[in-house]
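Lab notebook, bench 4. The sequencing result for the construct came back, and we need a structural model before the next group meeting so we can plan mutations. Quick request posted to the team channel:

Model the 3D structure of this chain.
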Amino acid sequence: MHSGTRTGALGLAFLVLSGCGTGVAPVRGKLVYPDGSPATDLKNAQVVFEGVGADGKGYSAAGTIDETGHFVLTTEKTGDGAVLGKNKVLVYPYIPDPERPPPKVLDPKFEAFATSGLAADVTAGGPNDFTFTVERARAEPKKAEPKRAANK
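Done. Here's the predicted structure in token form:
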């Protein structure tokens, strides 16, 4: 993804609610790996929820993953949560320098709503405390070193 596309994608995460009866509820959660260990190496990545409000419009909420693998979502005001109902979920990696992206930590399938397999049903009564199991990126195979000719 180019940095302009990234900026646009994250900008969508902060759509402002219009107040037309669309409800939000506080949402928090954590990311863990299949062995149950917290995804602490995803610090500063974004968890993004996308759902449809009662007004039929799409809304997004996002939260930054902290050093313990936890997040709190924001739609309009810090910590206000996500739109009520079914939400698709993705995890967007933290890339401090797009010119020199770090090695992938998270399996790239989690970077898109269509492939993440993650979803949440946000309810007015809560508690809306979600745990998402994510997978690490597969290690890139090492390139074979060219064989040197034997000196004779």
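The longest helix spans residues 3-12.
Will bring this to the meeting.
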